[in-house]
Write a structure and sequence with these properties.
This protein is mostly beta strands. The protein is 11% helix and 42% strand. A hairpin with a 2-residue loop joins strand 3 and strand 4.
């Protein structure tokens, strides 16, 4: 997976995130456009022919992405 993302927030919220302090996800613009690849002959080959978009949230201990296929 190759994931290009944009995350925009205030300087104050960015510092809080860097320090591991939770920030309300509504205050952070976090969108992504992942490119998923798989073997051309395998059962997941459809990933190579599908456009995906997503949004994310940064928690103190992880990043959570919600990714959807564009129909």
């Amino acid at each position: 997976m190759d994931n290009r993302a944009v995350r925009v927030t205030s300087a104050e919220d960015s510092r809080a995130i860097a320090q591991g302090i939770p920030v309300d996800p509504q205050r952070v613009y976090f969108r992504c456009a992942p490119v998923l690849t798989a073997d051309e002959d395998g059962p997941c080959a459809w990933l190579n022919r599908t456009v995906f978009v997503g949004s994310g949230e940064r928690d103190p201990d992880c990043v959570r992405l919600e990714i959807s296929a564009v129909q």
